[in-house]
Amino acid sequence: MPPEAAAGVGSGEIAIEVLRYRSDTDSRPVPQTYRVPFTYDMSVLQGLQYIKDHLDGTLSFRWSCRMAICGSCGMMIGAEPKLACMTFLRDYHPGPLRIEPLAHFPIERDLVVTVGGFVKKIESIYPYLIPKTPRRLDEGEYLQTPMQLAQYESFSDCINCMLCYAACPQFGENPDFIGPGAMALLQRYNGDSRDGAQATRMELVNTDNGAWSCTAVGYCSEVCPKQVDPANAVNQNKTKSALDFFLRFLGRRAHSGGTASDGDAP
Amino acid sequence: MNGPRPYLRPADTLWWARRPYRAYTLREATGIAVAGYALVLLAGLISLANGEGAYDVWLNYLKSPWSLALHLLFLIAMIAHVCTWFQIMPKTMPRLVIGGRIVPQNRITTAGLAVAVAAFIVILLVAEWMQP
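^ Those are the sequences you sent over. The predicted structure of the assembly is below.
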């Protein structure tokens, strides 16, 4: 137990103000305040669970794993996009702590937002390996060096929590922007030395709703709970998209992921 | 009322003026100062093409207090522009691998800033050396 916890510091009661929206009765979202007792080790998610169990069973929010891997409990906590399970109530004592659904997304109910648009974007980027040279089973596995893996590894750590979308003002302005999360996943495949579908995915990158909707604000990478660095995925694709544009005139396409010299696996 | 009725909150049109986006807005605004300084240099070039008289007018204008204040503002904005430029640079490139290891992003920023400072010192030395 940390000394602060032993001394009783960082426990007590906190006012939590939740932005509520009950689509069957509310015409617009309204804040509702709850007084929640908390201890040093309680997460914001546990605070919400306390409300649901003891104060108001009608409060709706998504959660599953409680350990920052499922990506369900993303919400605006004190106006910042955060995972409720990764954020501690003690840091907001004495409150009031304001909790809202993820910014820029339509609200289904209370803290539950519509994810359909995001799922469609994920589906649109061909989120699977399309081998450069298909191999038969008896030819063995597709090999890759650790350095080839390092080119895209962080982009494969995305848990689809959508915090980066709530952090992105350009997504707020243009809901059709493919956005940081889906672009990170796109780069996860385009940067993979075993993949051969870069040209197909570049057609998505090259559009107004692709990389060029981004203005390099960079807040998406700051709020990412998994250090995926989506800003890097989007912005390195601007360079690739520009190359693609100019190499067209030379009758070539710049569609190699990672570094061109990577080539095939050894 | 049946079925889901999603509520879309109105967009905040002043997001760029608020935290945490204010730093980004200021970063982008330093670009205006860079363009402003380019215009001052362009005016000097045009004056030079118009003969010695016009060039002296431009030189005298540069010595005015108003111009010195403007240049101080340009200098501050330019330094901020250079720093933020190299902070963003690692985001715009593929993972850099040297000697089998990924180079951390802050190392790339530091290297860029070091080159910028070195270039600045070289320019000052050359200017000093070229003085009549």
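The radius of gyration of chain A is 22 Å. The longest strand of chain A covers residues 12-20.

Shout if you want it in another format.
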